[in-house]
Amino acid sequence: MDEEYKKEKFETFKIKSSVAKKFRRFSRSISKSQSMALLSMIEFFELNGVSPNEVLGPKMETLESLIKKRINGVIAILKDIEKSQTKPTVAMMQSLFEETEPKKKPLILEKKFLEEKQEVRFREKQDPHKEL
Q1: Domain residues for 13?
Q2: Contacts of 45 (CB under 8 A, 6+ apart)
Q3: Ordered mean pLDDT values, 10 residues apiece, the chain (132 residues)
Q4: Quick check: is 124 in a domain?
Q5: How many Å apart are CA 113 and CA 107, to the nearest integer?
Q6: Fewer CB atoms inside 10 Å of the end CB: C or N, the chain?
Q7: What InterPro entries would the database entry show (predicted)?
Q8: Structure confidence at residue 122 (pLDDT)
Q9: Cα–Cα dist 66/68, whole Å
Q10: Does 12 share its domain with 1?
Q11: pLDDT for the residue 88
Q12: Whole-angstrom distance, CA of residue 109 vs CA of residue 118
């Protein structure tokens, strides 16, 4: 038993024997005294605003839908990160490490050959009235 309640006196309740047996089994399963087990249950109901007569179905469904929405949000964030960061980075890394054929460089022509090729295709028109 908890030290705070050690000096308090005991009270008795009238409950059916089958309920008492079930409660004692439950108290042992959570490894507390019967008083502490009952106190834990009362605090749980008060803290969560739940009544033992209330059905938890709709509340659990609401919680489940909220969790699903948040998981879908996390999935969307991860997909965005993958699309905008991971895939481009992987593509860059692959292009860096990929063996590619070197580009063919144009041949360097000899100077003589270049001079022969340069023909004058157009000449400046000379003005007949202009004196030389």
Answers
A1: 1-54
A2: 51, 52
A3: 76 91 91 84 83 72 85 93 86 78 64 56 66 54
A4: no
A5: 12
A6: C
A7: BfmA-like_N
A8: 60
A9: 5
A10: yes
A11: 84
A12: 13
Q: How many distinct structural domains can be found in the chain?
A: 2
Please answer whether residues 8 and 16 qualify as being in contact, where contact means their C-beta atoms are separated by less than 8 angstroms: no
* Together in a domain, 63 and 46: no
Structure tokens given for 58: 């709709």
Distance CA(32)–CA(43), nearest Å, equals 15
How far apart (Å, rounded) are the C-alpha atoms in residues 105 and 101?
A: 12
In this structure, are 23 and 7 located in the same domain? yes
Q: Are residues 2 and 31 in the same domain?
A: yes
31, amino acid identity? S
The answer as to whether 16 is a domain residue is yes
- Please state the separation of Cα 119 from the chain's center in Å: 69
Do 71 and 85 belong to one domain? Answer: yes
Cβ contact 45:52 at 8 Å? yes
